[in-house]
């Protein structure tokens, strides 16, 4: 008779095979993550001199072997955003590269070691920054200076037309752009209260608090005055943030948008956006730009303010898993394809082939 394995040996065999299985599965998962987060483009760190400062950026270029490419200059929304937006821009850059366009983006001042502080900036400051980046790009032999356009999200809606007023641009992609700062703020407040199922009394109190803040802004109140008047309702406001809001709260893109007349503009809007009144944004863009016949509007019913799928964005776990294993699937269906097609159509309508 064949001797039975000893219990200790059997346990050892089970442990070894279990460990081997875990290692194989782990290696497979790591491989999937690396594959899904590899993009068909070349990336390089760049430095752009702007006044007495330096913009720390990333230039992502197609791998098609062509000597010159068009370029999309990225203009961030609100907040401390780095050049890649935590790698969130990379699926967009890949879509651009497949259409024959390079992408340029940089860290906001004070982010990721960049000099300065983005909270010290006005919308005009941000436009000047982008103009300097475009001048830098036009001097490069690998960039076609006649095919440089802009991509901007949310707060960038106040910056994009200011850039176009200072330097020629070939096109604009506006993602969930705001039009009027104060109106956008009120819309966001009410939308969030509705989403929270706020009571009538809470809604009334929040509106009163918002009105009080507006009055303080109108009379150019200091941060100390704000804290004194709002007391417990200061809600975590900092002196730097108050300065940023005070500097920019009168922003309104309506008149500035006229600088984009005749420029091809792709306006992308999410049906689940609670930050920006997309219906009002579409109305203003249509009224101002439709006369030039160059406005294209794309709507994404499940898209949030960031044009991510709401079903994913509302869950931290789903967002993390998608970012690791399928980053391109984060975005609303059709969003990446529509931007790539927009760029390809530009190429067909010009003498240059992207």
CATH class of the largest domain: Alpha Beta
What is the name of the CATH architecture of the largest domain?
3-Layer(aba) Sandwich
Query: Which percent band covers the strand fraction?
Result: 15-25%
**Number of DSSP helical runs:** 12
In short:
The chain is an alpha/beta fold and 354 residues long. It has twelve helices and eight strands.
Description:
This protein has 354 residues and is α/β, with parallel strands linked by helices. The chain folds into three domains: 1-36; 43-180 and 251-348, Rossmann fold; 183-248, no CATH class. The chain is 44% helix and 16% strand. The protein has twelve helices and eight strands. An eight-stranded mixed β-sheet has the order 1-2-4-3-5-6-7-8, sandwiched between helices. Helix 3 packs across helix 4 (160-166). The radius of gyration is 24 Å and the shape is globular. The N and C termini lie far apart (76 Å). The model is unreliable at 350-354 (pLDDT under 50).
List keywords for this structure.
12 helices; 8 strands; alpha/beta; disordered C terminus; Rossmann fold; 3 domains; 354 residues
Topology overview:
Layout: H1 7-36, E1 42-50, E2 53-61, E3 69-75, H2 90-98, E4 101-106, H3 123-138, E5 143-153, H4 160-166, E6 172-175, H5 181-195, H6 200-218, H7 223-230, H8 239-248, E7 265-270, H9 278-289, E8 295-300, H10 310-313, H11 316-325, H12 335-348
Parallel strand pairs: 3-4, 3-5, 5-6, 6-7, 7-8
Antiparallel strand pairs: 1-2, 2-4
Helix pairs in contact: 2-12, 3-4, 5-6
């Amino acid at each position: 008779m064949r001797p039975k394995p000893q219990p200790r040996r059997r346990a050892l065999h089970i442990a070894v095979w279990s460990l081997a299985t875990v290692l194989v599965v782990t290696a497979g998962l790591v491989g999937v993550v690396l594959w899904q987060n590899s993009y068909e483009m070349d990336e390089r760190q760049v430095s752009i001199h702007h006044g007495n400062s330096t913009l720390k950026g990333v230039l992502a270029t197609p791998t098609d072997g062509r000597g010159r490419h068009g370029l999309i200059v990225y203009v961030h929304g609100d907040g401390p955003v780095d050049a890649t937006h935590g790698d969130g821009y990379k699926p967009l850059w890949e879509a651009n590269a497949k259409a024959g366009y390079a992408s340029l983006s940089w860290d906001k001042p004070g982010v990721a070691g960049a000099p300065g502080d983005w909270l010290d900036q006005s919308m005009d400051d941000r436009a000047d920054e982008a103009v300097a980046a475009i001048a830098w790009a036009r001097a490069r032999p690998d960039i076609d200076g006649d095919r440089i356009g802009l991509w901007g999200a949310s707060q960038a809606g106040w910056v994009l037309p200011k850039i176009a007023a200072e330097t020629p641009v070939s096109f604009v992609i506006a993602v969930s752009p705001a039009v009027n700062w104060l109106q956008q703020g009120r819309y966001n407040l009410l939308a969030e209260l509705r989403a929270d199922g706020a009571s009538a009394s809470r809604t009334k109190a929040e509106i009163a608090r918002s009105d009080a803040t507006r009055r303080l802004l109108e009379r150019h109140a200091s941060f100390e005055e704000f804290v004194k008047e709002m007391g417990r309702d200061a809600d975590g406001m900092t002196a730097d943030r108050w300065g940023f809001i005070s500097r920019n709260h009168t922003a309104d893109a309506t008149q500035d948008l006229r600088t984009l007349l005749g420029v091809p503009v792709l306006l992308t809007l999410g049906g689940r956006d609670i930050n920006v009144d997309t219906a009002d944004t579409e109305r203003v863009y249509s009224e101002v730009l439709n006369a030039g016949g160059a406005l294209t509007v794309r709507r994404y019913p499940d898209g949030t303010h960031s044009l991510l799928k709401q079903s994913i964005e509302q869950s931290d776990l789903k967002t993390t898993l998608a970012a690791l294993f399928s980053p391109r699937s984060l975005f609303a269906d059709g969003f990446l394809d529509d931007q790539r097609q927009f760029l390809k159509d530009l190429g067909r309508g010009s003498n240059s082939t992207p």
